[in-house]
Design a protein that fits this description.
heterodimer, A: about 325 residues, mainly alpha, ABC transporter involved in vitamin B12 uptake, BtuC, two-stranded antiparallel sheet, 14 helices, 4 strands, B: alpha/beta
């Protein structure tokens, strides 16, 4: 029964993903066509291969990684509101990236310096937020979210401060980390992000059964032979790594890890063997759709995709907060 | 010998939760742990389940320190039923029971053997009727039985239960203890914390009584649960009445 539902759910989500990612490049201010682009005709070829496809590949990696990080943190913290942005990790990671830019660091050993500082920012934020939220061995969900919101504000304030100190060219670059957005980035960089994100996703999927037990409780998992504390630490590192490797290039894109996992849980249940692959596919599709809106709504002006995800995800977050409060009081 | 505890003690800061607990548990016994609130019953069970660390003394399972046991191997031998379980996500009853198969799992999916164990566990706990319902929508008693089913699905040789009948109605209280007694007769060790002295008296093979972290008495139910000791430990005046025929005596509390 599980096997059939597993393959059926994944097939449906993968099909949606394929349809969205193949049709999205055709939408935009300039009308293009796959046949002409593949025949090497200008400007279709340039628009498709150097503008739209790299941007959609970035949307796939960012959407997939951020949604999956949401699923993972929700399981580890047993809180359906946990997600890289609501926990402040996206902003902490952005601050890390901005510090690298302000200091004029470009590459370290051939790897973009923003990656290192973004990861340092993500890990530090997570440590601080968890440090604030832990009361003994228990986590207070209320404190957790408040700590996330506070870290968000502090990070944004420091980013704005650095923005004002920066030179004109740096200041233009920093704008990206104030409100997350997608760009057409080089294939080499995309390959680098994929080299981090995809293996981490595979690792998380490999442990899917264990996340089910941890989502019920640490003691519940430990009593069934799951190495709970190791997996908790590993999960936090994996989530920070994915958030950082995406945020280093996109800035903070909020609430992506909230809507898709919640909808999937309502439709398919909480089994992480189904939830993890489906979240990746639908999270990626969701960000592609949001970014296509961002490119076209005010065309030829583009708005950052973070604006769209916040306008959709923010109200959803409030709705979740309210419905959960009701269930807590009943 | 299943469990062999020697001088087990535990402090929380200056507060002494357990002190000098020495006890042995054999396969084939149903042992009831009784005692007032704060006597250290749950702490003792948590140590035996391998979930509490930082205690003094030694706790061995099958001649091997439980701190040395590999967790998965230990989970195939010993399963633990917590006092209550709060679930925040929409797992259904069958999924919660299936989690008991985790120490056997290697792959992504459960094997036929796993499905059989889950089916059996749900059958004897009377939970098949709501296997597809969201765990959170079940009543307290239904949840408790699902959690017991999950522990049985682990196919353990030892069951540790922290107040397994707290939320159960009379029928399911009695059935749970009959089930534990039957499992013990088939060779399993079952250790259950309970506040119901009559259930302990009726079904247990042995009663371990704790007060303020120390063992007050340990032995056959009618030897441990005397009117004098109940008064001494629980500060309640009680009387023991003899049942008809071969039934065991029961405790009557002073009105």
């Amino acid at each position: 029964m599980l096997r059939r539902r597993f393959w059926l759910s994944i097939t449906v989500c993968a099909a949606i993903f394929v349809v969205v990612s193949v049709s999205a490049p055709l939408i935009g201010s300039a009308h293009i066509d796959y046949t002409r682009a593949l025949n090497g005709q200008s400007p279709d070829r340039e628009i498709l291969f150097y503008a739209r496809i790299p941007r959609i590949l970035l949307a796939i990696l960012a959407g997939g990684a951020l949604t999956l990080t949401g699923v993972l943190f929700q399981a580890l913290l047993r809180d359906p509101l946990a997600e890289p942005f609501t926990l402040g990790i996206s902003s902490g990671s952005s601050l890390g990236a901005v510090i690298a830019i302000s200091l004029g660091l470009t590459t370290v050993a051939g790897i973009p310096a923003v990656l290192f500082t973004a990861f340092a920012g993500a890990a530090a934020t997570l440590a601080i937020v968890l440090g604030i939220a832990f009361e003994g061995r228990r986590i207070s969900s209320f404190t957790l979210l408040l700590a996330g919101v506070s870290i968000n504000s502090i990070s944004m304030a420091i980013i704005l401060f650095l923005h004002n100190l920066a030179s004109v060219s740096q200041s233009f670059a920093i704008t990206r980390w104030l409100m997350g957005g997608l760009d057409s980035i080089e294939y080499r960089v995309l390959g680098g992000i994929a080299a981090i994100v995809l293996p981490v996703c595979a690792l998380i999927f490999w442990r899917a059964r264990d996340w089910n037990l941890l989502a019920v409780g640490e003691e519940w998992a430990a009593a069934r032979g799951v190495p709970a504390s190791k997996l908790l630490i590993g999960g936090y590192i994996a989530g920070s790594l994915m958030t950082a490797s995406v945020t280093a290039f996109t800035g903070p894109i909020g609430f992506i890890g909230l809507i898709v996992p919640h909808g999937l849980r309502m439709a398919l249940g909480a089994d992480h063997r189904v939830l993890i692959p489906c979240s990746f596919f639908l999270g990626a599709s969701f960000l592609i759709v949001c970014d296509t809106l961002a490119r076209t709504v005010l065309a030829p002006t583009e708005i950052p995709v973070g604006v769209i995800t916040a306008m959709l995800g923010g109200p959803f977050f409030i709705w979740l907060l309210r419905s959960r409060r009701r269930s807590l009081w009943l | 010998m299943s469990f062999d505890l020697t001088a087990v003690g535990l402090h929380y800061g200056a507060a002494e939760v357990l002190a000098d607990v020495t006890a042995r548990f054999r396969p084939g016994e149903l042992v009831a742990i009784v005692g007032p609130n704060g006597a250290g019953k749950s702490t003792l069970l948590g140590i035996m389940a391998g979930l509490r660390h930082g205690y003094s003394g030694r706790c061995y399972y099958r001649e091997r320190d439980i701190l040395v046991w590999r967790r998965r191997a230990f989970a195939r031998c010993v399963s633990f039923v917590p006092q209550s379980l709060k679930v925040d996500f929409p797992f259904n009853a069958e999924q919660v029971v299936t989690m008991g198969r985790t120490p056997y799992g290697g792959g992504l999916f459960e094997t036929d053997e796993d499905h059989d164990a889950v089916e059996r566990a749900m059958k004897i706990t009377d939970t098949l009727a709501f296997r597809n319902r969201d765990f959170r929508s079940l009543s307290g008693g239904e949840r408790q039985r699902v959690v017991i089913a999950s522990a049985l699905a682990q196919s353990p040789e030892t069951l540790l239960l922290d107040e397994p009948t707290t939320y159960l109605d009379l029928k399911h209280q009695v059935e749970t203890y009959r089930l534990l007694r039957d499992l013990a007769r088939e060779g399993m060790l079952a250790v259950a914390i309970t506040h119901d002295l009559n259930l302990a008296l009726t079904y247990a093979d042995r009663v371990l009584m704790l007060r303020a972290g120390r063992v007050v008495a340990d032995g056959a139910p009618h030897d441990v649960l005397t009117a004098g000791r109940i008064h001494e430990v629980f500060s309640v005046t009680a009387d023991l009445r003899n049942g008809n025929g071969d039934s065991r005596p029961w405790i009557v509390y002073a009105p």
